[in-house]
Amino acid sequence: MGAYQLKNEELTLTVISAGAEMKSLKDNKTEQEYLWQADPKFWGRTSPVLFPIVGNYVQKQSVYEGKTYTLSQHGFARDMEFDLESQTEEEIWFVLKDTESTLEKYPFHFILKVGYRLSGRQVEVMWKVENPNDKKMYFSIGGHPAFNCPLKEGEKQEDCQLVFDTEGPLTSSILNEEGALCPRTKILNLFGKCLKLEEHLFDEDALIIENHQAQRIGLADADGKVYLEVEFDAPLFGIWSPAKKHAPFVCIEPWYGRSDREDFDHILENREWGNELEPGDIFEKDYKILVK
Predict the structure, then answer these.
(1) How far apart are CA 289 and CA 228, in angstroms?
(2) What Pfam families does this protein map onto (predicted)?
(3) Which positions ≥6 away from 233 have C-beta within 8 Å?
(4) How far apart are CA 274 and CA 264, in angstroms?
(5) Under CATH, to which class is 3-291 assigned?
(6) Coil, strand or helix at 270
C-alpha cells in the first residue's frame, strides 16, 4: 500500500492506493483536519469508493444470465489494491481491473479509474468506468466520504446542522435490518434550508434521498457557519453516521445506485438506479468537496 499527497497553498490531501481512498484533508495554515480518521471504535474507514454496487443486493445476491452472484455491501473495490496510473502536483489517478476473484462475484470485466484534483480550497473526486466486454455492463458507483463533525473541540454534533440548496422538505427512503429498502419513507422538514443533526436522526441507518432532491450539502458548526460543502450531480445521495454510537463524523455520499427494495426480483439488469454501459464506452462522473 502506498500513500500519496496532493498539496497547494491552501490544502493537503492524502490518498492511499488501498481502495484509492482519501485519508486526510488538512488546511495548511491551521492544520485543521476535515476527514474522519477511521477510528475503528466507530467506523474503520474514511472515504471508501463503492463499486460495483452501492448498498446491498437483496439477500446479498443478484442474478445475471441465469447465474447467481453473491456480493457484500458496497462491493469489493474498497478492499482492493489500486495501481497508481499518474500523478502531478495537484492531480492523481488510480486504476483497478477485474481479477479471477472479482469475476466470481461480479460477471463483468471492468476498468475502474479513480482520480483526485486539488484546486484552491476544493477537491474534485473523479470516476471513470470503462467497459472492455463485448456486451452491456451493469454497475453502480458512489462515494462515502466521512467528515469530522463537530469540527471544534467542546462542540456537540447535536449543535451542528446540515445545510441544503433547497428548502425541502426532503423524502428519505428507509432501510430494513438486512440493508434493503422497505416501503416506508421519512419526511425531513427543513428550517431555513437546515436540518439539525439531532441525536436520533440516524437510528434507522442512512438517510437515502432520491430523485435529485438536493445537489449541494453543507456542514455547519454550532454558530451556524458552514465549514464544508459537498457538491454533486448524482441522482441520489446518502447521509450517514453510525446509529446510536454518538460518532463524531457525518458522511455525505453522492451515489449512482443504491440498495435493492426488499421485494426486488434479484435480476441485475432490473436494479433501480443502476447504470448501463455499452461495450467500449466510458462512464465519467465527479463530485466536489469545498472547504470554507
Answers:
(1) 7
(2) Aldose_epim
(3) 215, 285, 287
(4) 13
(5) mainly beta
(6) helix
Q: What is the pTM of this model?
A: 0.96
Domain extents for the chain?
Answer: 3-291
Kind of pairing, strands 216-220 and 207-209? unpaired
pLDDT for the residue 56: 96
Cα–Cα distance between 142 and 139 in angstroms, integer?
Answer: 10
Q: How far apart are CA 29 and CA 181, in angstroms?
A: 44
pLDDT tens digits for range 107-160:
999 999 999 999 999 999 999 999 999 999 999 999 999 999 999 888 999 999
Q: Could you tell me the three cell numbers for 211?
A: 430523485
Q: What is the dihedral of CA 215, 221, 223, 226, to 10 degrees?
A: -30
Instruction: Give the tens place of pLDDT for each residue, 256-274.
Output: 999 999 999 999 999 999 9
CB 4, CB 18: distance < 8 Å: no
Q: Do 203 and 244 meet the contact criterion of CB atoms below 8 Å apart?
A: yes
